[in-house]
Model the fold of this input.
Amino acid sequence: MNSIQNSLLLLLISILFVNCTPKATQVQRFHNPEEPINSILFLYGNIEDDILQLDKASYEKSLKGKFNDLENKGFRINLYEHLFSMLNPTLVYNYNSMFEDFKSYSYEEFQQKLEEKEIDHVLLVTQKERIILEENVIRRYQVHLMETRTGKPLWVSYGFQSGSLNGPKSLARGIKKDLEGENLIVLDSFR
Done:
């Protein structure tokens, strides 16, 4: 392909990403919550490992120091702001309301902070893959909705995509659509 064809293809891909709400390509629902979820703690990190449950081993290996790192702080805050607004009336707590940036917390400290704020569910978004096409970067994400009491997942999805142009807003829109579609979050009709 010549450079004009490459540019046109990249423009077409970019337009498709801007206008489309990403949707997970793979979804696994484990069980239903006892009641609709009305609050969650949002965590984000570039984590390649699969996190099968929120226990000490997974925390130490995959989450510790990654959900509050400085490298991803800008994206994390931007995604949080979109989720906070889009998931309303579900209350979304940001990590930085409980944890400092760039500080290591033991699993016990992590759990204690969750208990202090009475957090029953964690929405963990992880970047799993990054593909570079010319000047456009496509990222794929996995989203976990986990119970803090048991550490077990309620719902896990993979395949949300976002391009360079639409990033956090589009990703948040896709997460909202899937959580609502699965009847996992509190909607206005529950209040």
